[in-house]
Amino acid sequence: MMAAATDEANTASSKDADFDRLFGELRESLGDENFRNFLVALRGGKPKTVKYHPEKCLHAELFDASNWSRWLDPRLSKVLEEWHRTGDLKQVDLDAAALDLQALAPGIFSFPCFTADFCRKILEEVKNYQRSGLPERPPNSMNNQGLVLNEIGLLPLFDELLSKVLSPLAARLFGDDNDRLLSLKGQKTIGNWGGSHLDKHHTFVVQYSAKDDTHLDMHIDECDITFNIGLSESETFQGNQLVFCGLYDADDHRKHQLTYRHVLGQCVVHCGKQRHGAVDIEEGERASLIIWTKSHAFRRSAEYRALYDLDRWKLGKADQICLSYSHDDDYEELMPDEMKFQMPTHLAEAAGTASSTDASGVPINRKRRREDSANGAEPSRE
User: Fold this and answer.
1) 145-188, pLDDT tens digit by residue?
2) Where in the chain is the domain with CATH 2.60.120.620?
3) β-strands 187-188, 183-184: how paired?
4) Please, are residues 345 and 283 in contact by the beta-carbon 8 Å criterion?
5) Following DSSP, what letter does each residue of 6-50 receive, concatenated?
6) For residue 287, what are the β-bridge partners?
7) 184, 166 in Cβ contact below 8 A?
8) CB atoms inside a 10 Å sphere around CB 185
9) Residues 6+ apart with CB under 8 A from 287
10) pTM of this prediction?
11) Architecture of domain 55-374
């Protein structure tokens, strides 16, 4: 009888695993927004619609996807010219002096991306939408303040930007062996993270102030490659620098690598599995445009599965700035009581000012990772 009960439990567990796998595959196939609408339809509801553009928008030109090239920093446009003409990725010269790309640390780079006009209009559009009273949701599980741009009519624009601007950069920095540079300006790239075949994006704005979302706990992103662009003028805020630690499964994943201060229109790009967070904002308000990108072909590959071998993952040594109160089992033990649940700037400074830069920007514990995966949930992210 006991053996029969065990067999039934094993069968039920196997069915649950198959169900979770099928739902995960469906989500990958449909994309996050369509998957949510699918679940709503299963419950007999109607998909959420937002009637914003063109009736209520502030800058109609943002919603015309054919304007995509208008918003690029001229230095970036110049570097992409030959690739647009020939389709040859080798023509994307990221080492060109005119681009002024900065190699900040292995696998972390910054470059001029969008015009100041575009940044201003995006932020004005976000605030206009927030005043409209139309439905909105937090941009992710860790930021309460901000807006998902894909859901207000800007998906076509960012589809174009992914295809015509971000994809060639991702291929050169995080693509397969045929496309990827081995090093750039003295810093190594960190291997293939799907950059050659990006096909999906979750694009949103996050906002920080002394009243709401004062900082961002250490984490990794639920994406393959993250593009993070400053939307605020540098003089309008103090503090709130991005802090980067190691790659999620490396021995030094909780060791400080660099501190990055956002600059208007400048993009910092990194693998989604680079541990990072944002220290407390001290004055003013800061906003960033975040573009999480994914390659579903890469995620179905054996190479991707090997990268996510959970048996390799260990907590390891930690700088205090790299500890996560949301994700680290040993946070309570390692963080002094007077500094818990905050991200003061001095922790980043104490971790080593030599790696700090003003370049002109989690591992989840093993149990949490498996729960998120089984439930089809997206892990914590920026």
Assistant:
1) 999 999 999 999 999 999 999 999 999 999 999 999 999 998 88
2) 55-374
3) antiparallel
4) no
5) HHHHHHHHHHHHHHHHHHHHHHHHH-HHHHHHHHHHHTT------
6) 207
7) no
8) 12
9) 123, 126, 146, 205, 206, 207, 208, 231, 232
10) 0.82
11) Sandwich (2.60)
